[in-house]
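Moderator note: this is an archived Q&A kept for reference. The question asked for a predicted structure of one protein chain; the sequence and the answer are reproduced below.
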Amino acid sequence: MKLKDKVVIVTGAARGIGESVALKFTKLEAKVIIVDINQESIDEVVEKLNAIGGNALGFKVDVTKKEEVDEMVEKVVAKFGKLDVIINNAGITSDAKLVRMTEEQFDKVIDVNLKGTYNCAQAAAKIMEVQGYGVILNASSVVGIYGNFGQTNYAATKWGVIGMTKSWAKELGKKGIRVNAVAPGFILTPMTEKMPDKVLEIMKKKAPINRLGLPEDIANAYAFLASDEASFITGTVLSVDGGLVL
């Protein structure tokens, strides 16, 4: 996969899947922009990437705030002269059963996962339309396709991301812009590692390939979809779940 000198923005890139995505693209010699809300974590990841020969920058951005997103994208283009790829990875959970979920829980997840993705994609698309090329990649989830107990808000956002992905693919294709989504299954991240071993083992056994997903599995999917090898793929949702939902 050839991504040398591609300018790539990754949101939610200061930990977990986002950090692995940033590392993967750095190893493929892309210029990676780390976007997150924790400045200390941003600085740590940027330092790590540059230490292995990367060309990384970091921006503290709240993706729910359009003005912050727009300013970040403008600065990236001003420095590099272009924007090749944006990966809308930033997302949160705030789980509860329907009858117990608060309005605050619902709104917060909608704002970050859905509105945040919209804000970032819109800012990127305006640049990419002028360029005549670009790739927008969105983080969905198998939960967005099949639902999940206690995740009304999260499932709604991840289903919404799929709808936006397909709509944008139709709108932007003639402008040379491809739009796809990745739907991870159960991925072993710092957050899931805190779960009881019994639960992890159950999830492992549910997958036909008999292992939990790794952040690198998702990073590999994004790298493929961002590359020219995927030049005829748009409007799709790539499930990376080890067969979990079969």
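Archived answer notes: DSSP finds eight helices and seven strands in the chain.
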